[in-house]
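Appendix C: a fully annotated inverse folding record. The material below is reproduced so that readers can follow the format used throughout the book. The structure is listed first as tokens, followed by the designed sequence.
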């Protein structure tokens, strides 16, 4: 048997070339549909917040868990789900994840109170983690080297498309009922599931015998959930209250235990954190910058929805349509942003994008008031923020990839993605706490925009430390990752 490490180095792995182009196109369609659904539910629920709150009589603090339950579960389960798929088969896990996601979406649409909705969102997050963690590996296994760059580009763009379509789709559906925000997943998911059973190939890592570390995963979920709870309720209870202090201390303790557990995980288990990777300076800085930036991004998304629907009294449909320019600009500038990063350095261009994002927050902070003046007070900063996001996300992803060997590509990118989701969770928690503490809607909104500015500037300063972080050769990395997947 040929040495697969040598194959990866020479780029001689050619088995996927036998897959007919029509079939690879169908595989890309199925995988993209799954990734789109998992990503859409990170964005579409924001616009349904007011309707859900009115239906259940819930305040923003309680409703924040409709978002946080999904992002925390999604983030914590990505790495364990990926390693499980390595052992038992990626096709099997992807289809299982799609089925779980569909069933949980029906559950979310049938929820009878906020608690039941949060519970179904946790199950939905499990399905999303199962399908997302296997999606890229399925593409790399199916596409020949000459077409992998195209497949990865499509896979990378799906989140941007979901972000752009989330607000208008959500706004249209909420006009009928917020429950349709979840039911829309069902027909798309069923179609992808049926087609996936016919066209997706099976692949696994024959050398992977380890199991996910359940203890480490539980500690991570518990630590982030307790931290989010403390941040959301601190304005009402008081930052110096015994309950708040106890929750913050408990969260810190649990997160420290996560690190200790990762360092001492038995060899038969997969650590919840890849500590050897996090000792790499560029990788660690990029993950931290991503976490902080997505805290800013998550706060901005929810904050703007709450302001448009609450402060300016717009309908969900109107707010959703008016928010489109931001994510649309992000999608348009993602590819040019990658080219700029290749020329000037990922860290520098990401820092530029984050600075533009901070500028948009400053604009809202200084220009928005009680008068509904979208064209001059809101729109210019939406465009600038979208450009900033487009420059940022592409270059953070490229900076992460540049630090990873082929064997670490799956784990490293999954950990980075998990950090992004955890950042969004903390941003939402901070935003909800600030909005709840405001004397009136405008005070709360301005506090949220100030939070966006501070976090974006912190992320930008961190990105400057990343340096050039060369763009990796996607095809070479993909070949290596496929080789690792097939060993």
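Designed amino acids, in order:
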């Amino acid at each position: 048997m040929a040495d697969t490490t040598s194959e990866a180095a020479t780029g001689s792995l050619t088995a996927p070339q036998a897959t007919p182009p029509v079939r690879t196109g169908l595989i890309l369609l199925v995988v993209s549909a799954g990734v789109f659904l998992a990503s859409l539910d990170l964005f579409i629920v924001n616009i349904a917040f007011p309707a859900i709150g009115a239906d259940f009589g819930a305040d923003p603090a309680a409703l924040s868990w409709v978002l946080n339950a999904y992002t925390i579960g999604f983030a914590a389960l990505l790495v364990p789900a990926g390693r499980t798929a390595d052992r038992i088969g990626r096709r099997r896990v992807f289809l299982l994840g799609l089925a779980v996601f569909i069933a949980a979406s029906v559950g979310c649409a049938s929820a009878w109170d906020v608690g039941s909705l949060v519970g179904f969102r946790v199950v939905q997050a499990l399905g999303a983690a199962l399908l997302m963690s296997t999606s890229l590996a399925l593409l790399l296994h199916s596409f020949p080297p000459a077409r992998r760059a195209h497949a990865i580009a499509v896979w990378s763009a799906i989140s941007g498309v979901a972000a752009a379509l989330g607000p208008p789709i959500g706004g249209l559906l909420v006009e009928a009922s917020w429950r349709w925000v979840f039911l829309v997943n069902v027909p798309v998911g069923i179609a992808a599931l049926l087609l996936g059973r016919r066209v997706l190939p099976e692949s696994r890592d024959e050398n992977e015998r380890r199991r996910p570390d359940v203890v480490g995963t539980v500690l991570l979920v518990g630590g982030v959930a307790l931290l989010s709870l403390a941040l959301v309720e601190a304005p009402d209870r008081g930052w110096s209250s015994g309950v708040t202090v106890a929750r913050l201390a408990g969260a810190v303790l649990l997160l420290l235990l996560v690190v200790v557990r990762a360092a001492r995980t038995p060899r038969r288990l997969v650590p919840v954190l890849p500590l050897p990777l996090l000792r790499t300076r560029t990788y660690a800085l990029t993950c931290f910058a991503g976490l902080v930036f997505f805290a800013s991004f998550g706060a901005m998304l929810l904050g703007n929805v709450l302001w448009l629907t609450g402060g300016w009294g717009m309908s969900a449909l109107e707010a959703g349509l008016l928010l489109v320019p931001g994510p649309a600009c992000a999608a348009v500038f993602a590819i040019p942003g990658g080219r700029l990063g290749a020329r000037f350095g990922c860290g520098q261009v990401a820092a530029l994008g984050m600075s533009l994002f901070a500028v948009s927050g400053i604009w809202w902070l200084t220009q928005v008031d009680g008068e509904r003046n979208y064209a001059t007070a809101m729109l210019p900063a939406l465009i600038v923020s979208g450009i900033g996001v487009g420059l940022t996300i592409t270059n953070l992803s490229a900076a992460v990839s540049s630090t990873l060997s082929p064997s670490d590509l799956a784990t490293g990118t999954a950990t980075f993605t998990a950090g992004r989701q955890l950042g969004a969770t903390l941003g939402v928690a901070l935003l909800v706490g600030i909005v709840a503490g405001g004397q009136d809607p405008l005070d709360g909104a301005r506090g949220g925009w100030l939070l966006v500015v501070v976090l974006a500037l912190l992320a930008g300063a961190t990105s400057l430390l990343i340096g050039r972080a060369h763009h990796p050769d996607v095809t070479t990395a993909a070949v290596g990752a496929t080789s690792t997947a097939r060993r």
